Amino acid sequence: MTKNIIGLMLLLSGLTLTETRAQGNNNFNIDVKVTQGIEDAGYLVQVFNRDQTARKFLGKIDVKDKRTSFATHLDEPLVGDLTAIFPNGEVCTACVRFPFVPGEECHVKVKNGTFELTGTKFYQQWSDADDLEENAHKYYKQWETDSIILNYFKKHANEEGCVMRYWQYEVLPRTTILKLIPDEMRNGRFKPFFERYDGAEDAAFLEANEFEAIDDADEIEVEEVEEPESDFAIETPDTADVPTLHFDIDSNAPKMSRRQMKKAVKKQMKAMEKQMTEYMMNMQKHIEEMQKNVESMGKNIERRSQEGAIEYR
């Protein structure tokens, strides 16, 4: 009888524990550990909507004895970020951005300029993929790195953490990711991320990074320049169109991570390089025109000098 009672109590306890876990499946937890030498006073926690076009402030957490934590309820995975607050109250201009996943716990280790993510299953997979990418870039040549990263993803395309790590930071083109992931991943809890992707980002990326061949100089047509009316009338090139590097900052746009900022700068630099090439070709054309003007002036002066000498005689 006693054994039956004990067995029944254990069964009830198991059912209660299972129910509690089921109720907590939508809880998301962050545990932050700050390493020595880092003086972050706290962190701002915010989450973005599905399209990452608007953000919602979730709270501010303070660091005490190099530790802090945060917990919230989520109905679906969403991208969020942590932004450091310095002891003087200033907010860091960079952040760490990653998916906030219901039912998971993320352990964030803050180091000098970096954030290391580990934790429950999803974040351990994320961490493994992150380590693989970092080591591939560190120890291998570029052509080897690309192959290593692609092969790793093919082997781990059924892991949510790996897929979202590649997706969030666009380690591979998103069209490639969609081709490689299985149907159960595509239709799983991260389905909204994949559904709202139309491929426009990859097309823009490929266009921005395409190297255009510069044609030979024989295609630069130089118009004949008539003799100037005045001996010293030299037309100078217009410098108003000199390209400058600038960024259009939308104050309502989501804050960019370091990786996204680096990619945005690279894209701007490519556009500027193209503009500079066009500008230099125009400058070459102006220089050639100026040289023709100078030659014409020299001949003009020489001719007039000869005419003056004849008249003097």
Describe the structure.
- 46% of the residues lie in helices and 18% in strands.
- The chain is α+β, with helices and mostly antiparallel strands.
- It has 3 domains: 25-116, Carboxypeptidase-like, regulatory domain (Immunoglobulin-like, Sandwich), CATH 2.60.40; 120-210, no CATH class; 216-312, no CATH class.
- A 4-stranded mixed β-sheet has the order 4-1-7-8. A 4-stranded antiparallel β-sheet has the order 3-2-5-6.
- A hairpin with a 2-residue loop joins strand 7 and strand 8.
- It is elongated, with a radius of gyration of 32 Å.
Characterize this entry briefly.
This protein is an alpha+beta fold.
Give the oligomeric state: single chain
As a percent range, the share of strand residues is: 15-25%
Task: Supply the helix-strand structural class.
Answer: alpha+beta
Shape: elongated
Q: Which residues sit in consecutive blocks of at least 5 with pLDDT less than 50?
A: 10-23, 209-234, 242-253
Largest sheet: 4 strands, mixed
Layout of SSEs?
Blueprint: H1 2-23, E1 27-34, E2 42-48, E3 55-62, E4 67-73, E5 78-85, E6 96-100, E7 105-111, E8 114-119, H2 121-139, H3 142-155, H4 160-168, H5 174-180, H6 183-186, H7 191-195, H8 200-208, H9 258-312
Parallel strand pairs: 1-7
Antiparallel strand pairs: 1-4, 2-3, 2-5, 5-6, 7-8
